[in-house]
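Appendix C: a fully annotated inverse folding record. The material below is reproduced so that readers can follow the format used throughout the book. The structure is listed first as tokens, followed by the designed sequence.
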């Protein structure tokens, strides 16, 4: 297993990522330039539908970047490329300076272990209790003794406020608790990069706020590069260091959170205000 902690730097780079036009191979041969993941000219089509159409975005090491965008614009497809579950038609995804698709299958598999993913519904196994769900990645991917696993899982469950739910099955707990259990499981391998696919979906505003606080707290505690896909402006405001807006398979805005909130950019303004009039249409 790769050393999940040492590769992550301590501070945010002062310079935000370059979201301009680039070609594969540009400036990626050496190191990461403070970027955990670099997405370069990414294209992906399904049949005749061009989903990603030359997407460029870099994810700053140790920062929380939120990706906003209308439904169907390719946010989940982007996350799947980042973790190496989808192969680009064109372009590159470099993780800590390595193009995922230049790696051997074994190396790619090791690379995937540097990611944690929190799916919309927590993606818990219904047949296992919460403890076993959280322990699953450790049992599958490591040689750890059961006593070590117990200690780690107990700590992670305490951090997400689920100590009392360890023996419950997923169908015995609420949607918010499932998300927290999914979060504990995503953290258990000490990932360098954590991907959240709409962590707030299906939660009421109070539980959304509590989950956001937890994301911020866990990031402060464990560090790492967090990428949060959401439609929720309150989530964006609460958790983000940087904000990107995706539309029609391209990045149409990128900036630090405070700038995004004050931005006059028409894409950002329309998304933040939920206005039906503006550049973001149904097509
Ligand atoms: N494996 C696939 N095969 C065919 N089409 C796909 C596949 N995966 C995604 N798509 C299509 O790509 C488009 C973008 O999907 P994606 O799930 O990335 O959107 P999204 O921006 O995450 O939307 P939402 O906010 O609604 O979750 C959609 O039209 C979707 O149907």
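Designed amino acids, in order:
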């Amino acid at each position: 297993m790769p050393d999940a902690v040492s590769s992550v730097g301590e501070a945010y780079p002062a310079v935000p990522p370059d979201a301009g036009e680039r070609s594969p191979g540009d400036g990626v041969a050496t190191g990461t330039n403070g970027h955990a993941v670099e997405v370069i000219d990414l294209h992906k089509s399904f049949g005749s539908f061009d989903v990603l159409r030359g997407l460029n975005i870099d994810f700053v090491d140790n920062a929380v970047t939120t990706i906003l965008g209308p439904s169907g614009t390719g946010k989940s497809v982007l996350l799947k490329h980042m973790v190496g579950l989808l192969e680009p038609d064109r372009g590159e995804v470099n993780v800590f300076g390595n193009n995922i698709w230049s790696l051997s299958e074994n190396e790619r598999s090791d690379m995937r272990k540097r990611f944690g993913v929190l799916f919309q519904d927590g993606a818990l196994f219904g047949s296992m209790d919460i403890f076993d769900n959280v322990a699953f990645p450790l049992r599958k991917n490591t040689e750890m003794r059961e006593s070590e696993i117990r200690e780690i899982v107990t700590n992670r469950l305490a951090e997400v406020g689920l100590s009392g739910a360890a023996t419950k099955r997923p169908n015995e707990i609420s949607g918010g608790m499932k998300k927290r259990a999914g979060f504990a499981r995503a953290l258990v391998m000490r990932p360098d990069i954590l991907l959240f696919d709409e962590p707030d979906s299906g939660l009421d505003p109070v539980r959304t706020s509590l989950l956001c606080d937890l994301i911020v707290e866990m990031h402060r505690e464990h560090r790492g590069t967090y990428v949060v896909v959401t439609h929720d402006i309150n989530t964006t405001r609460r958790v983000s260091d940087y904000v990107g807006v995706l539309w029609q398979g391209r990045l149409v805005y990128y900036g630090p959170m405070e700038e995004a909130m004050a931005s006059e950019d028409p894409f950002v303004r329309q998304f933040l205000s939920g206005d039906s009039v503006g550049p973001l249409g149904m097509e």
